[in-house]
Amino acid sequence: MKTxxxxxxxxxxxxxxxxxxxxxxxxxxxxxxxxxxxFCSTHVLAECYSVLTALPxxxxxxxxxxxxxxxxxxxxxxxxxxxxxxxxFQAIERVSGNGLVSGIVYDSLHLxxxxxxxxxxxxxxxxxxxxxxxxxxIAISAP
Length: 143
What we know:
Order of helices and strands: EHHEHHEHHEHE
Distance between the termini: 15 Å
Helix content: 40-55%
CATH class: Alpha Beta
Radius of gyration: 15 Å
Largest sheet: 5 strands, parallel
Number of strands: 5
CATH topology: Rossmann fold
CATH superfamily: 5'-nuclease
């Protein structure tokens, strides 16, 4: 199965201090093994760094640790889908056409990347965002 991972699942998969870690980590581990193909977008990488370095944790994550977590968890496990200007325009058109505002545009970028990779499922904790954008035939699930 081709599976796309949203930032909201990847970050807790990497950070055991988060309440959704076990669910996220189990799903990530299952869908990046043999018989499955895992994907994320280039934008997910930047979002992961942003979130990891800003988390209000007892054990803070340094910039170098965040970079290492991302590389170790993504490299060799996920195919990273590059996004160019046309995908950004498409994402903006999709959300503006649905009257959607603010950060949901980032989920629109992820959806476009998942479509380009022909993913069958997106794992996210923002299920409602993806449904509001219009995920088409891609299944949207929380871990």
